[in-house]
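For reproducibility, we list the full input for the '5'-O-(N-(L-prolyl)-sulfamoyl)adenosine complex.
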Amino acid sequence: MRLSRFFLPTLKETPTEAQIVSHRLMLRAGMIRQHAAGIYNWLPLGTRVLQNIIQIVREEQNAAGAQEIIMPTIQSGDLWKESGRYDDYGPEMLRIKDRHERDMLYGPTHEEVVTDIFRNNIKSYRDLPKNLYQINWKFRDEVRPRFGLMRGREFLMKDAYSFDINYERSKHAYNQMFVAYLRTFARLGLKAIPMKADSGPIGGDLSHEFIVLADTGESAVFCHKALLEKPAPSNVDYEADLQPIIDDWTSLYAATDDKHDPAMATTLGGDLVSARGIEVGHIFHFGKKYSEPMKANVIGPDGSPVTVMMGSYGIGVSRLVAAIIEASHDEHGIVWPESVAPFDIGLINLKVGDPDCDAACKKIHDALCLMHKDVLYDDRDDRAGVKFADMDLIGLPWQIVVGPKGVAKGVVELKRRATGQKEELSFDAAVAKLTVM
Ligand code: P5A
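The corresponding predicted structure, in tokenized form, follows.
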């Protein structure tokens, strides 16, 4: 992609409305623009990151046995009257009347809709278990939308819903999502710590939040430092008993502010980490809270109806973009983990119009594209300082700098964004090195 054609409205000045670093950097890097309070446009650079995150979330959901669907964003209020949440949910729910004066709403979550799909289509215990998920926009009319995507009114969520015949199977579905979340956040380059949580308006008796540590996090958190070192489970057999993995992760102390036991500070001593965190995921086991009032029953093994047990499992997909930036940036800009970077490589031509520099850039660009690398080629006729600053700001993992002096010697400079480390390499060696990355 040529930068001269790419829609990338970067800003030199720090926008005054942004209070936290991820919001500032997303505006400055031309990733997003605000449309209305808590509602954003995603520009091409932001969209590419969001799509990369979506893909990782999707792969891990599929691997854990969940199946992707798409539910409507605009829902009928009738289902919420059935579950009892229409009145409970309060002013956070955006209520809409259609032309026939029917109560509609923009979905803040989808427990009711998915339970309706289930009860209309699944009749026998033989069709269980089922886990259905979507990656779709939600609307919550938050009192104080703030910090950009961190607490938006419209935001993208991955929401999964499990249906099982009994508690034991239902707990297994919960454990599957727990493990899938550990793997998902690790692939996104994040350390996310599971913590026991309250279930709030979603309901239920068992719930965990997944918290990414960052200084600007909304909640104070406390945990055993060993949790920060734990690798996510690899090669999981999702049909096997996952309880030992869950026990392993939940046996070490971890708590949000409201649940923190001050005596633990003494017990753990130097092993206690006290930090701030961002909630990037939240899972709930709520049994029959929706299936009972909405009559989601199947015929059980003995021929009599059984009310199914459910859980729901959320990931804040758009919030993750901000959380990754909070966890990975420096004074020059964003430092993307390779797995989510909007391009793999930034190619900087220091002397656009110089036939040798142009030819070298074209050669390197074409060679990398052949190897299926995403390259953003800065072919703008602009000052070197502007190009370096923009490239650091948008945080691509690798930069190749092509200038007349190097080209005369047959070399380019390769820079690793995360460390700032630079090396001079021949064109071919630079391409070869990036191809194996
Ligand atoms: C679980 C899936 C639910 O809604 N129902 C379906 C359950 N859970 S939740 O905790 O309320 O939300 C899941 C995740 O969505 C993110 N999130 C937000 N992101 C940006 N702006 C918001 N206003 C917002 N509200 C929730 C969080 O990451 C949360 O963990």
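The chain has a mean pLDDT of 96. The pocket of '5'-O-(N-(L-prolyl)-sulfamoyl)adenosine is lined by residues 109, 140, 142, 151-152, 155, 157, 159, 202, 279-282, 284, 312-314, 316, 318-319 (CB under 6 Å). Both points were considered when choosing residues for closer inspection.
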